[in-house]
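re: ur question from the group chat, yeah i did fold both. here u go
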Amino acid sequence: MKTIHYNEAQYASAKKKVERIKGFYRHLVVYLSINMIITSVHTVHVMRDGLSLMDAVWNLQTFFNWVPWGIGLLIHGIVVLNVPSLLMGKNWEDRKIKEILEKDRKNSSMNWE
């Protein structure tokens, strides 16, 4: 097996990325845990007031914490996991730059003819 050596800056950068990803996963676990507890407590409380289980679960207030916090979690995930680059592929940026340069070159040559 070939040993690969990394310089200190590369190692520090990789370690920082791993810490950010770990932070996102912690955020996800806390989000799910806390919201499940809140939802359970809220559901039991509402059921004591006479609503059925389904009415209690689908009560709009049940989702009050899930949605705004979920939007924040989604943004956190997009930033940390670098979703735009995952969706567009590894070489998307280079291909797009070449495409734009080629288009600009053709347009400028057409203007001089």
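okk and heres the other one u asked abt
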Amino acid sequence: MQHKNLTGSLLVALPTFLATPALSQTEVVVWVGGEPGQTTVYETIANQFNEENPGVNLTVVTNTSDIFNPALVPALSAGEGPDVFTFGTGPGQPAALIAGGLVADLTDAYYEHNWSQTIPEGIIVQTSSDGKLWSYGNEVETTGMFYNKAIFAEHGLSVPTSWAEMEAVVETLMAAGFETPIGLAGADKWPVSHWQSMIFGRYAGPEGIENVLFSDGSWTDEPFVQASARLQQMGQADWFGPTPVAIGYGELMDAFWAGEIPMTFTGPWVVGGGIEAAGDRISDFSVFAVPPFEPGQKIYPTNSIGSGWYIRVNSEHKEIAIAYINRMFQNVEGRVTLLDHGVVPVGPLEEALAMANMPQLSVDIWKAADDHAANGSVPAFLDTITPGTLTTVSYDGLQALLLGVMTPEEFTAAMQEAWAASKAAGEIMLPGGIAER
């Protein structure tokens, strides 16, 4: 059986295993971490795979995180764990699996099945080390500027494509009486880090971010100081309202969907709540990519993954496990199925988005990201791929930046001090990248 990939230029063959129903079936176990309602798509695709391959029975076992994490390593160590499973990709999470020789090297599969067609380089660096690929990035998240089209239309505003236009939009909204042109739930800290991740990526680019994460770069390098200064400038000019660190995320989103705040920078996880809150007015909302902060600056979509797919090193069914991964990610049908269930796969989305049954607002944010995918991507959530000590320092420092009680230089210096300590302690992600062939 063959399915064309998203570019239409490559045919990805999905092998048929033990196709005679009369033969005893090959049992392949899949473990997925998460809540059952969020993981049914993997069982759906497994059932499709089983129908296409009568000699195989893929069984998906869903475990909540409090059961999954403690049980996984002992099961893998005993050789009795799942054949293929999802697990984290952040610092420290897969290190024990890789160092312990518990997961398979997927580099051969990467080249044999042209996974470079769907896995962006920005995701590769999060799922590889020592020149080898250890997992296939699973669900991806992004961020963008959600905005109220009705408010924009009422005040004669268009989506800004330059920073001068962005300044003009904010000025018009403030003059029209909007105290908070861009909502920012600074009380919860993590929403500010979404801005940090995006703006750091814009000023430093993918290479600059990777140079710090995996080489000898420093958070005190000039692009990060400039980015911090820009964020502080926006905060001090009341773009986020007079008291951005005093409002929580839930309160802010309620105000946004009610039409009291024209814009907020967030991700697709808000769409379901927005449909419920706005009702028939949901068509008033859309998403755009924040324009370049400086002339000539590129727009880099933000992409981060919450987990990856790993294969047990001593599984007797590696080829079937790889075929299941291909069934999910390497052909349009699988990618559309994921999108229909609210799971966004890594890689190009244009063709699958056109076929998927998704809320328009979800399509809008992913199209806003996909339109600039050729530029490369930067992490959407630096706080998930850096050590917890650095996250704490960043969260507190971002609030201090907005309040004007810390300079950009002081902020980035505090980040670097925490980073250096974590680096010395071996708490950071291993260098990523796959050896060329």
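fwiw on the second one: The first strand starts at residue 2 and ends at 4. Residues 144-303+368-424 form a domain with the D-Maltodextrin-Binding Protein; domain 2 fold (CATH 3.40.190.10). idk if thats what u expected
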